């Protein structure tokens, strides 16, 4: 879910999350499919950056994957991580272009909500300070809630990533009134985050059917998309799957 390169308002970047290439690899305990190869294919298909989440239980991306990505990537790496001492040490050793702080529970299948920043400001402010000093841009993955956005600004985050999961879930369920309400909330909070001086990103659960309304928000500078693209790659290949997402994003922005 985070950040690539700073550019003027208007340019929408695509970060491709490669976690679930590693999920398929780990299901057999083999060396393939290789997430680093997926990152290289993503770059050729028009991705602006690569996102990888090193979970505490290492269920998909591994420490070796991060090592290899740092050695081989020419695109910026967005390192998703929980706010733990272990992950902070790993991030400080590698110094990726960006780190995105996400909530993490071992029993969840995927990240279920945004980080609770407002109730943990002091700890998180101290946690991200050395990451910023090391040169990594710090993004906070949060719900579209003004209290969380304000807290993210206060602790010194440079970027927020708005959780689009509820919007996408409502769409999938056919709950279109709730979907539209959530979309308007995302729109308002993207505007609010931008007004507070934060760079605004968005992600989680976006598909071909749901990406364009979010891509059209002028304040959103980056979308991070992974699971859906890896799923579509089974049927159409990774390169065309990413190119179609890129096309839809550009069409919405235009």
Describe the structure in your own words.
Keywords: Cytoplasm, Pyridoxine biosynthesis, Transferase. This is Pyridoxine 5'-phosphate synthase. The chain is an alpha/beta fold and 254 residues long. It has one domain (13-253): Aldolase class I (TIM Barrel, Alpha-Beta Barrel). Helices cover 49% and strands 16% of the residues. It is built from eleven helices and eight strands. The chain has helices at residues 19-28, 35-45, 63-72, 85-94, 121-133, 146-155, 165-173, 176-195, 211-215, 227-236, 238-253, and strands at residues 13-17, 49-53, 77-81, 98-101, 137-142, 159-163, 199-203, 220-225. The chain has an eight-stranded parallel beta barrel with strand order 1-2-3-4-5-6-7-8, surrounded by eight helices. Strand 7, helix 9 and strand 8 form a beta-alpha-beta unit. Helix 4 packs parallel to helix 5 and helix 5 (121-133) packs across helix 6. The longest helix has 20 residues, at 176-195.
Secondary-structure map:
Blueprint: E1 13-17, H1 19-28, H2 35-45, E2 49-53, H3 63-72, E3 77-81, H4 85-94, E4 98-101, H5 121-133, E5 137-142, H6 146-155, E6 159-163, H7 165-173, H8 176-195, E7 199-203, H9 211-215, E8 220-225, H10 227-236, H11 238-253
Parallel strand pairs: 1-2, 1-8, 2-3, 3-4, 4-5, 5-6, 6-7, 7-8
Helix pairs in contact: 2-11, 4-5, 5-6, 7-8, 10-11
Subcellular location: Cytoplasm
Subunit structure: Homooctamer; tetramer of dimers.
GO biological process, one term: pyridoxine biosynthetic process
């Amino acid at each position: 879910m985070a950040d690539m390169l700073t550019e003027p308002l208007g340019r929408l970047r695509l970060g491709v999350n490669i976690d679930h290439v590693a999920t398929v690899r780990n299901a057999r305990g083999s060396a393939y499919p290789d997430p680093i190869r997926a990152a290289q294919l993503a770059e050729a298909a028009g991705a602006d950056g690569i996102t990888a989440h090193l979970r505490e239980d290492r269920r998909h991306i591994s420490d070796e994957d991060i090592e290899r990505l740092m050695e081989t990537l020419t695109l910026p790496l967005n390192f998703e991580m929980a706010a733990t001492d272990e992950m902070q040490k790993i991030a400080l050793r590698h110094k990726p272009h960006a780190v995105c702080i996400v909530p993490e529970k071992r029993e969840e299948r995927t990240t279920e909500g945004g980080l609770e920043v407002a109730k943990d400001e002091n700890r998180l402010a101290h946690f991200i300070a050395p990451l910023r000093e090391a040169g990594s841009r710090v993004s906070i993955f949060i719900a579209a809630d003004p209290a969380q956005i304000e807290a993210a600004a206060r602790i010194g985050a440079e970027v927020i990533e708005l959780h689009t999961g509820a919007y996408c879930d409502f769409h999938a369920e056919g709950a279109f009134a709730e979907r539209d309400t959530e979309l308007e909330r995302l729109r308002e909070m993207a505007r609010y985050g931008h007004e507070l001086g934060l760079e605004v990103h968005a992600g989680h659960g976006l598909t071909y059917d749901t990406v364009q309304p979010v891509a059209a928000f002028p304040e959103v500078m980056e979308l991070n998309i992974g699971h859906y693209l890896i799923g579509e790659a089974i049927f159409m290949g990774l390169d065309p799957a990413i190119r179609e997402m890129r096309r839809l994003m550009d069409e919405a922005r235009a």
